Fold:
Amino acid sequence: MSEEQTCLTATTNVQEKLKNAAELMREATKIVALTGAGISTESGIPDFRSPGSIWLAEPPVSYQDFISKPEAREQYWRSRRNLSALVAAARPNDAHRALVALERRQKLLGVITQNFDGLHQDAGHAPENVIELHGTAREAACTLCGARSSIADLQQRIYAGEIDPRCELCGGFLKSATILFGQRLPVDVLARAKELTEQCDLFLVVGSSLKVNPAAMLPRKALHNDIPLIIVNIQPTPLDAYADVVIQEKVGDVLPALVALL
Structure:
């Protein structure tokens, strides 16, 4: 088969998958979307595993190390200096806007995201419809008393030379209000995500590798309930064989095309 024929076959296959996915989505009225790093990378925020990622150059600090080691907290703030600039400059892309279009058509029950960048809210989602499993980089949090504060103010303290900032209320360690490796997800957040999954009539995975729990358990719960599963991710996932439709293309291309077919 020539290269031209191969490209034509691939295009035909994608179009067929788009039609099949759109048919499932037309019948649904309570879609739940799980979004992962693959939707944010198209806005310029690096994921954890791609070549060139800042996380590969300097692996993320675990929660246990952050709490117990001053040098780990210093590393955390040093690496976050680079990441915070990328997050601040990022803007919603076509995939984010396509999900908002589903919400405005009253077909989207909610978004469960593994991302902490706030781009879903920037795109126009009602904040109460976005569940941030891994927290938000837009606030600071005390690891002792849990108080929330301005991440911009805390970042200024870091820029001014602080390497181990403390909570002004209780003296606890401060970090962004995101979940570190080894840190438990808030019980109420995970409960809301599970509740949405139980209520949905279609589960849509967008840009997630489905390799990180507990997020990866949610589409499994949908499958257990015999709910249709659509996966849009540039790379294969562990659940591809069980999904109704799998589209391995850029989410910023696929989601707008799906919405246009509804």
Residues 1-9 have pLDDT under 50 and may be disordered.
